[in-house]
Amino acid sequence: MRTGEDGRAVEHLPRAREFTAFVAGASGRLLHVATLLTTEPAHRNPLAQELLTAALAHTFAHWDRLRGDDPYEATRSDLATRFARTAWRHHRGRGGVLSSLTPQERLVVVLRLYEGVAEEQTAALLGIPEDRVRAVCARSVSLLRAAAS
Predict the structure, then answer these.
(1) Which among 25, 55, 102, 139 counts the fewest CB atoms within 10 Å?
(2) Radius of gyration of the chain from Cα atoms?
(3) In 3D, which of 80, 71, 19, 24 has the Cα closest to residue 52?
(4) Is 68 left (phi over 0), alpha (psi -120 to 50) or beta?
(5) What is the extent of the structural domain holding 59?
């Protein structure tokens, strides 16, 4: 293995540059997704930052295996999965329009309506039937409309 002047492996430099470019382009939107899920204020969102950091670390670790796959989708999926696994930490909303929803409702609303993920993909990601995704989304939108009026 060749090393550069700084002692780092030369073979890893293109990989690191690609990942850095991905993070520069996608991290803002992904952080917004995480912030919507945790319902933290945008200016103070340590839980959202923690979720995103872990998801990005996972994406970097699997970067070479993502050839041909969308790294944004992979990172968003990992972010959603991490949020779902730690939903107990996010049960009580911290403010914002989505704080009245349960973690599962927030996840469905953010994936379906904000991110535009298809019902089938959302169902597969969450491990629930498509009709459940449809019902949760419809109920959540009704709750949000009622709260807004």
Answers:
(1) 25
(2) 18
(3) 80
(4) left
(5) 10-148
Q: Are 130 and 88 in contact (CB under 8 A)?
A: no
Domain total of the chain: 1
The model carries a pTM of: 0.84
Residue 1 lies in a domain: no
Q: Which two tokens stand for residue 83?
A: 């949020």
Q: Note whether residue 51 is domain-resident.
A: yes
Report the DSSP beta bridge partners of residue 9. 3
The count of other CB atoms within 10 Å of the CB of residue 99 is: 15
Q: Is residue 136 part of a domain?
A: yes
Residue 110: Cβ within 10 Å count: 25
Give the tens place of pLDDT for each residue, 10-34: 556 777 899 999 999 999 999 999 9
With 0-12 CB in 10 A as exposed, 13-18 as middle and 19+ as buried, what is 94?
middle
Tell whether 3 is covered by a domain: no
